[in-house]
Each structure stands twice: as structure tokens, then as C-alpha cells.
Amino acid sequence: AQEVTFYEAVGGEETFRRLVHRFYQGVAEDPLLRPLYPEEDLGPAEERLRLFLMQYWGGPHTYSMRRGHPRLRMRHVPFTIGLKERDAWLRHMRDALDEVALPPELDKMMWDYLTMAAHSLVNSPD
Ligand code: HEM
Asked: Which of 4, 36, 49, 111 has its CA 20 to 30 A from that of 56?
């Protein structure tokens, strides 16, 4: 039996490229989130998130070949993430998902995962 991964079902790398690019356009303009990103060029951060999400959803494992185990909670410790930051992050992701316009059931799977993950990365009570 041939199993179609979520990665393939949403359109592969091109879809993740559009999603994460749109997300970072929002971050670039956000006065709360932009200062959290250590590098002036958001391009490398965009690539890391794109490769992570591609891998998570069944695409190539390029992320782990370059970065090792994701350890997302540990990697976010250097950044103060409270409820405001979490909600701003999710708002840009929601805008990006709306723009990419996945079929509703795939959109819901992606959104449920991102919401859960963003909640788990809050590390600073307001
Ligand atoms: C990295 C912020 C949620 C995945 C980063 C970085 C910041 C950040 C400032 C460093 C940028 C870089 O140089 O790569 C936030 C904030 C969040 C959030 C404020 C709000 C809750 C998430 C979620 C995911 C995620 C929900 C995954 C579903 C990643 C990944 C990296 C990263 C994969 C790169 C890790 C690495 O390889 O170094 N995040 N993040 N983040 N974030 Fe988040």
C-alpha cells in the first residue's frame, strides 16, 4: 500500500516554502517578535523553521542532518516567550495558513499541531 505523507498531500516543499516565507514577513514587521530574533537577516531562521516543519510532516530529514535532534523547548530557552509572544507567533502563522489555503482537514491538522507546539514553548509567565 502506498501511503501519502502529509508533506506530499499539502504539495511538498513548495507549500512549506510559501507558508514559512509568509510567516516571516509577518515576524519582520512585528515590534514584539522581531527583537527576539538574534540575527539581522531572518533568512537563516526561515530556512530552519521550513526544514523542521518539512521533516515533522514526513518530508526529507534535512533539518536533523544539519541541526541534530530538534529539542525545541531547549532551543527556545534563550528567548522570553510569554503569552503575548505566543499569540503573536500564532497570529502570523494563522495569516500564513490562510494565504496558503490548504484543504480544510489538512489546515486543521497543521493548525492543531502548531497551536499545541506554541503553547508548549511558553517559558515565561507574564
Ligand atoms: C527558532 C521564537 C514557536 C520552531 C526560534 C528562534 C526564535 C523563536 C527567536 C531563533 C531563530 C533562529 O535563529 O532560528 C519563537 C516564538 C514562538 C516560537 C516567540 C512562540 C511560541 C515555535 C514553534 C515551533 C518553532 C511552535 C515549531 C512548531 C522553531 C525552530 C527553530 C526556532 C525549528 C530553529 C531551531 C534551531 O535549529 O536552532 N524560534 N518560536 N518555534 N523555532 Fe521558534
From this structure: 36
